[in-house]
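Last lecture ended with a question: if I hand you only a sequence, what can you say about the shape of the protein? Today we answer it with a concrete record. The protein is TerB family tellurite resistance protein. Below, first the input exactly as provided, then the predicted structure, then a couple of comments.
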Amino acid sequence: MLPGWGRNGHAARYSRILGTRIAWTAAGDGEFFCPGCGGDRNYQRLTGQRRFTLLGLPVLPRGETGPVVECAACRRHFGTDALDHPTTTRFSAMLRDAVHTVALAVLAAGGAGSRTALEAAVLAVRAAGFDDCTEEQLAALVEALEADTGRITGEPCGAGLAIELHEALDPLAPHLATVGRESILLQGARIALADAPYTPAERDVLATVGAALTICSDDVTRLLAAAARTPS
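The predicted structure:
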């Protein structure tokens, strides 16, 4: 048998004559978290046109493919669901805003007039990334939040405050591991416990925080009880 004319050789020779090729067209760009590189990178969103080739030359269209996301650094292609993952910069901002919102919500439930609760809230918010946060700023924001939502300090978590919490926490929760979601809840618990045991209003706010973070009610109860037993 002549070289190149066995079963495998025949298939290889055939594939050099007839094949398919994808012509990619850029349809947008931006920045994303590249799963391949493990960091923030620029990307191009590509749509493709698949074509039959004859001797390496495109001859007949075979339909569209994609869209895909191409990393500008590693050149790998990913499904467009890769864009659902926030960039590192965006994730940090989401986490910072979440902790800030939880701190304000807990303070609005009854701790805005307590110096120790304000101090605990400032520590949590600064650790999250708001380095210049002060007790005066948080107290003023709680007053503004109460005026905006029509809420009175000490009341259960009303619709306006619940909306604020869900807007801050719902987009973040899918991107956090269990320990990360629990950490945010526990930061709120420590603020509530800084001056006294939980009030009913604080428990209600923290239950709303847990629900927004997709923590089941039994786990919320367990975590709040554990925080209450832990010396401050």
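Comments.
1. The beta strands are 18-34, 39-54, 57-71, 77-78.
2. Confidence is low (pLDDT under 50) at residues 1-5.
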